[in-house]
Every structure is written in structure tokens, then in C-alpha cells.
Design goal:
2 domains, MutS, DNA mismatch repair protein, domain I, six-stranded mixed beta sheet, 7 helices, alpha/beta, five-stranded mixed beta sheet, about 230 residues
Length: about 230
């Protein structure tokens, strides 16, 4: 089998894309944000822009892009379509280097995590929710990073469903182990995003609390952990 050669630019793109495999990667190239391969096919359909091809060493790759100054026009459409979007910028002036320009992701935007005024609705909250299921009790939390509003609750599946309907989150985080059975537990009318199971473990929660409150609120942190453990 003959290995296909890639251009330096596409090798750089592939390296960055591998770290954001679940997001559409807007890759800054000069005055444009470009998308490639499967991302380009999806972006062209959502935005209604032209899909072309670009030479990539010994082969061609799908390409779709738009001018950088049109980001606030196109970004909301991608996010409102339920897509996670990683914005990859040029981290140095192309005129100052003879090598390939350094690039890196400067922002990851999801339906539930955005501060972009073009995406947010000023008349209502934009909640990111997180749900965990347990044999005894189920837990749910809601966060709006644009206002700082944060709520937590626990209860039956019916109660969790009612809260989800009332808060109407634009994104719901769930443990990967519940991915296949999520629709058997709660409504399917939400955008669900599965994350690693370890993010929902007690040890990870304890570490996050210790990092946040440090020694000044240690007694309060231990009190919270005792409540959590009593529910498990």
C-alpha cells in the first residue's frame, strides 16, 4: 500500500484536528477560516457555501471556507445547528517567519458554552446542563456562564425531566456509559454530549472542590462531600 503524502499545512491541520475530533475546526489560513475533509462537507451543507477541493500532496481534500471577518455571521449558524466549534488562529505574523505559521485553538464554542452575543438570546438564559443517574437518586445541574447562574437538584427521573423542560438547556452533558440508553431515561429533545465517566466520579469532584476552595473553606467542602457520599 502506497502511503499518501501530505503538505506541511495539512499535516499541521491533522495534528490539531486530532485533539478536537468531535468539533468542527475553523482553521485560519490568511484572511479565511478553512475547513477540510468531513468538516468541510458538513460546514458547506449547514452554511450553504461552496464545497471545493485542495491539493494535499499526492491527493486532494475537500475544502470549504469563508472570510475571517464573516465569523460572527457563520459561527452562530454552526452552533445553533448543534455543533461544537473549535477556532484555530494564526499565533504569529506570517511575514515574520519562513516556516509554516504557528497555529492553535484559542476558543472552543459549544451550544451550551458561549459568550458570543450573536449566539446568545438576550431575553433568556443559555443553560449548560449535566445529568447523572443513580439507583437511589438522580442529579442534575444547570450553568449559564454568561450570567453566572448555577443550580443543582436531585430526585426521581420524572423530577429531572421536569427540570430539563423548565430550564430548556441548549446542551446536556452525560457520562459516556449512559449514551446508548439516554432516551430510555429522559427526553430526547435535547442536544446531548457524552463525556468521560471519570468526570463524574467522587474523587474528581473532591479534587475540584479542593482546588476551588483550598484551605479557607475546607470544612464547608468536607460538609458537601459528606452530603454527596450519603446519597451514593
Amino acid at each position: 500500500m502506497i502511503e499518501k503524502k501530505q503538505t506541511p499545512l495539512m499535516r499541521q491541520y491533522a495534528s490539531i484536528k486530532s485533539k478536537y475530533a468531535d468539533a468542527l475546526l475553523l482553521f485560519r489560513v490568511g484572511d479565511f477560516y478553512e475547513t477540510f475533509s468531513e468538516d468541510a462537507i458538513e460546514v458547506s451543507k449547514i452554511l450553504g457555501i461552496i464545497l471545493t477541493k485542495r491539493a494535499n500532496g499526492s491527493s486532494n481534500v475537500e475544502l470549504a471556507g469563508f472570510p475571517y471577518h464573516s465569523l460572527n455571521t457563520y459561527l452562530p449558524k454552526l452552533v445553533k445547528a448543534g455543533k461544537r466549534v473549535a477556532i484555530c488562529e494564526q499565533l504569529e505574523d506570517p511575514k515574520m517567519t519562513k516556516k509554516i505559521v504557528k497555529r492553535g485553538v484559542t476558543e472552543l464554542i459549544t451550544p451550551g458554552v458561549s459568550l458570543n452575543d450573536q449566539i446568545l438570546d438576550g431575553e433568556k438564559n443559555n443553560f449548560l446542563a449535566s445529568v447523572y443517574f443513580n439507583d437511589k437518586l438522580n442529579g442534575v445541574s444547570f450553568l449559564d456562564i454568561s450570567t453566572g447562574s448555577f443550580f443543582v437538584a436531585e430526585g426521581s427521573l420524572d423530577y429531572i425531566n421536569k427540570l430539563l423542560v423548565n430550564f430548556s438547556p441548549t446542551e446536556v452533558l452525560i457520562p459516556k456509559k449512559f449514551k446508548q440508553k439516554i432516551n430510555q431515561k429522559i427526553s430526547s429533545n435535547f442536544y446531548y454530549y457524552p463525556v468521560d465517566d471519570w468526570l463524574f466520579t467522587l474523587d474528581y469532584a473532591k479534587g475540584e472542590l479542593e482546588s476551588q476552595f483550598k484551605n479557607k473553606s475546607r470544612m464547608y467542602m468536607l460538609f458537601i462531600l459528606e452530603i454527596v457520599q450519603s446519597r451514593l
